[in-house]
Amino acid sequence: MTDTPLNIPQSLQELPPRWAHFCLHVEKFITDDLHVDLTQRCVVTGFSGGVDSTALLLVLHYLAQKNHGRIVAVHLNHNLRDEAKDDARWVQSLCDTMGIECVIESKDIKALAQDGVGIEEAGRNARYELFQNALSEKSADYIAVGHHLDDLCEDVLMRLTRGTGWPGLSGMSGFDPARNLIRPFLLTSKATLIEFLTDIGLKWREDASNADSAWMRNRIRNDILPLFLKENPNFPESIARLWKLGKIEKHYWKNQTGNLTDTLSNNILHEAHQALRLRLYKTSLDRLGEGQALADTLFRLDKAWQEKRIGSTFQFPGKKTATIIATGVVFSSIH
């Protein structure tokens, strides 16, 4: 069962001028904002068959031709919906039509969702494990996923709900060097992706589970985000600016908190503004491994340091501690 047309544009040159410029705009975002060069690179592209991943597949395919690179489409059948096998066949058909290498695997996500791991998390873990395996097996340089501006809006609202601080509140990263992962559409609206595929005559697969209010992201998408858009139709543009500011500040704080050891000396802390001290505490704790440093505990730690409460110890998630000593603050993890 397929419904993929055979007359899909095969290159940038075959695209209508507007959409050729769109592809080049995406390339500029990848180059200028994500600082990633696609020249002669291989990109593993997550391809569910939805509107965002389908548009991503085509754009990266066109750019790969321009830049003498290649892409590898990767699809995971989660076996959660009756139509999942049809999705996989559609994915393979489109890749065959475009001459794109395609990797398709199947996992029983329900079976993987156990011991406190929900279905959504199990599916995400399985997808990214597959992406990483493909990255290695195909000697690829990057993994690309189709998160777009609407997803960024949802992500910011989810982080706000969870109490995330700044600059983490600005949303997901466009480039994650630790995973070689890029998000080329992060500042592109879903409406633009829909218009792109519609104009070139390509349909996509719809996932009915996106309407399931059991998932927090769907509740944000279907119930909360529309309220923000009603109050401020330019909310996505505001989030895009917030993301750019957050990116700048993350880079700033990274430079300010580099080259730390397990002990912060009083000399460093006395010279630092409270904003910098809090960043230094958090970075020192993050270096010790997983576990989010809670803001309230960081405030208590800083107050105790100011009051010179030598010997005071503060516990943080991930079995990490911060202890005030005569010469400063020492950080350690309990194994």
In short:
Helices cover 49% and strands 13% of the residues. It is of the alpha/beta class.
User: Low-confidence segments, ≥5 residues, pLDDT <50?
Assistant: none
Radius of gyration: 23 Å
Q: What fraction strand? A: 5-15%
What order do the strands of the largest sheet run in, or round the barrel if closed? Answer: 3-2-1-4-6-5
Helix and strand pattern: HEHEHEHHEHEEHHHEHHHEEE
Give the number of helices.
Answer: 12
What is the molecular shape? elongated
For the biggest sheet, the summary is:
6 strands, mixed
Helix content: 40-55%
Question: Pairing-aware structural class of the strands and helices?
Answer: alpha/beta
- How many angstroms separate the termini? 54 Å
Say how many strands there are.
10
Write down the overall mean pLDDT: 93
